[in-house]
Amino acid sequence: MTFLVLDGLTKTYGDVRAVDNLTCTVEKGEFVSLLGPSGCGKTTTLQMIAGFTSPTGGRIELAGRDLASIPARQRGLGIVFQTYALFMHMTVRENVAFGLEMRKVPKAELTRRVNDALEMVHLGALADRYPRAMSGGQRQRVALARALVIEPELLLLDEPLSNLDAKLREEMQLELRRIQREAGVTTVMVTHDQSEALAMSDRVVVMDKGRLQQVDSPFDVYETPRSSFVSTFLGKSNNFPATLQSNDETGSVILSGGQTLRGPRVSHLPGPVEIAVRPERIELVDAGAGLVSGTVRERIFFGAQWMLAVETPMGEFLVARRNAGAREVEIGSTVHLAWAPHDLRILPAEHEVSA
Ligand SMILES: Nc1ncnc2c1ncn2[C@@H]1O[C@H](COP(=O)(O)OP(=O)(O)OP(=O)(O)O)[C@@H](O)[C@H]1O
């Protein structure tokens, strides 16, 4: 069931179109991330859903109601920001109970709901502590319990984990997703961190310059990006200008940097395109089997894998090599690169080319 509808949502500040005609939907129980670089309009979108900022144009509908005339505090939303905004002079239990007290929930029910929320975030044992005596991850759980205890129709998260260090952040990603599933609460999260969006979401809304770029499952935005922007914003990608020469049921033929390549069948017309291939889809092969050859210029060790920068006639390629303990190729050596035609993505041209 479509639960949240953003329909042509627009917000302008003078000449700046912070959010530009954004249309997308969120299903009940779904976890959707708004992902994009700084300034792309994620926070403005969330603020409009929350009711803190009014749209310049377009509509927001939640559970069949148009939110235009409903003030923020009556929207029944749970909100967690990057800074936890806890009451420092109140214990964890008091912090979580606050929203229910404001709503004049009877004492017995309040106690039960606060206990349930604290159990859900695994903080039952710390209920009588003050936030200042807690770690960043624990405080973020308190903020989450406080948002969930009111049983919100919709949970809004704005960069909720960005104050945490890398390891805790990864732990909390899994934890937050578990809590969201358990509570069954429809959630919209703002993040600029692509790995976080991929790890946590049912669907990812990729934005750039106020505009929607793509809405898909994490798998699909990564595997089948529809634009150059999406292919390079999510993960690493080798992108080159190219010319699509022909395209039939056996696949496509592409020319790039003097190399003739084969790709999957696409709907583009022959002409300028951009091609993209992920570093982890490239193999090092024998000279005769290579699609393009080049010289290793850089070699960086990441623990689980090596990343090579290889200079070729098409341009520089990043090539990921799984670390299987084998000796690694030397800087300065010649390598031959190959990939399967179906691993090549053919995208709309970003630049005019004369390949
Ligand atoms: N109150 C405001 N007045 C004027 N311009 C604003 C205002 N709020 C946001 N903007 C502009 O709107 C655009 C989108 O801002 P927004 O904060 O939504 O981006 P964001 O994607 O959340 O970025 P970040 O990740 O850096 O928070 C930016 O160009 C920003 O400068």
TrEMBL record:
GO terms for molecular function: ATP binding; ATP hydrolysis activity; transmembrane transporter activity. The keyword rRNA processing does not apply. Keywords: ATP-binding, Nucleotide-binding, Transport. GO terms for cellular component: ATP-binding cassette (ABC) transporter complex. Residues 4-234 form the ABC transporter domain. One of its GO terms (biological process) is putrescine transport. Transmembrane segments: none annotated. PROSITE patterns: ABC_TRANSPORTER_1, ABC_TRANSPORTER_2. This is Putative spermidine/putrescine transport system ATP-binding protein. It comes from Salipiger profundus.
